[in-house]
Amino acid sequence: HVQLVGSGGGSVLAGGSLRLSCAASGFAFSTWCMGWFRQAPGKQREGVAVIDNDSRTEYADSVRGRFTISKDNAKNTLYLQMNDLKPEDTAMYYCVADRCGRSIYEYAYQGQGTQVTVS
Questions:
Q1: Per-residue pLDDT, 24
Q2: Could you give the CA distance from residue 10 to residue 17 in angstroms, rounded to a whole number?
Q3: Contact, 53 vs 35, CB < 8 A?
Q4: Which long-range contacts (CB under 8 A, 24 or more apart) does 109-113 make?
Q5: Per-residue pLDDT averaged across 2-24, rounded?
Q6: 25-44: average pLDDT
Q7: CA nearest to 79, candidates 68, 88, 63, 66
Q8: What's the whole-number average pLDDT of the chain?
């Protein structure tokens, strides 16, 4: 069955960096689309970045130029490099995955979340 295990969150000062990882199993990693979304307390969840089976990427306006999504098909791992972090980036971050051809908000599979706190 599909498993997504996120890691790499933590607490950093504004301007700092973190790299999130998501180890995936149970599906054809290289052929699926994957992404990250985040949710802060009291706020709606926000799709942060997506990467398709051809490694084409899309970003939310709020993170474009600061975050980079990537994947390693040999390791079945998804990454989110986050630079120049801001307090408003504080949230629980979730990796998600599904067959391509739908919105990130429709992806059926989600990891357990990793907390990012920026102060």
A1: 97
A2: 10
A3: no
A4: 109/2, 109/4, 109/27, 110/4, 111/4, 111/5, 111/6, 111/22, 112/4, 112/5, 112/6, 113/6
A5: 97
A6: 95
A7: 68
A8: 96
The whole-number pLDDT of residue 91 equals: 98
Residue 35: HSE in the Cβ half-sphere, 13 Å Cα cutoff: 27
Residues for the chain: how many in total?
A: 119
Residue 48: closest CA among 99, 76, 6, 2: 6
Overall average pLDDT of the 41-54 stretch: 95
The pLDDT value recorded for residue 57 is: 97
Query: What average pLDDT does range 94-119 have in this prediction?
Result: 95
Per-residue H/E/C for the chain: CCEEEEECCEEECCCCCEEEEEEEECCCHHHCEEEEEEECCCCCCEEEEEECCCCCEEECCCCCCCEEEEEECCCCEEEEEECCCCHHHCEEEEEEEECCCCCHHHCCEECCCEEEEEC
Q: Residue type for 19, please?
A: R
- How is residue 38 written in tokens? 């985040």
d(CA 86, CA 94) in angstroms, rounded, equals 18
